[in-house]
Design goal:
It contains two helices and nine strands; from the N terminus they run E-E-E-H-E-E-E-E-H-E-E. The protein has 119 residues and is mainly β. It has a single domain, classed as Acid Proteases (Cathepsin D, subunit A, domain 1, Beta Barrel), CATH 2.40.70.10. The strands form two sheets. Strands 1, 2, 3, 4, 5, 6 and 7 form a seven-stranded mixed beta sheet that branches. It has a two-stranded antiparallel ribbon with strand order 8-9. Strand 5 and strand 6 form a beta hairpin. The radius of gyration is 14 Å and the shape is globular.
Length: 119
């Protein structure tokens, strides 16, 4: 899938303030990722550390937190990874699913997803 970008707003879990960002949509990334400087500016502090795997197979410990995201007129809390200062913001699969969205790769846009309920 060729990369494309999506405008969104991100803030602390309590929704007290938001920052507009442009994030690369990447369904191969489980979680959303934001530069740590943006998260810190918003008052978001790391809540836990988890081992995550890069596309190269290399594993590394990263800090994570719950954040609030505004996307397409809706708001949800979601997991966010603290990235490096030069990290490009990434909108990951977990966040997309929490908004009930899927990727239309041919038209490079987000569309309503068919979500599974189970039995």
């Amino acid at each position: 899938m060729p990369p494309f970008h999506q405008h969104l707003e991100i803030g602390p879990r309590d929704g007290s303030r938001f920052q507009m960002v442009i994030a690369q949509v990447d369904t191969s990334s489980t979680y959303t990722l934001m530069p740590a400087t943006v998260l810190t500016m918003l008052g978001v502090a790391p809540e836990w550390t988890q081992t995550l795997e890069r596309a190269s197979g290399e594993q590394e410990e990263r800090q994570l937190a719950e954040v609030r995201i505004r996307l397409n007129g809706q708001e949800r809390t979601t997991v966010c990874v603290f990235g490096g200062p030069d990290s490009e913001p990434v909108l990951g699969a977990h966040t997309l699913l929490s908004f009930g969205l899927a990727v239309d790769a041919a038209n490079q846009r987000l569309v309503p997803a068919t979500l599974q309920l189970g039995q």
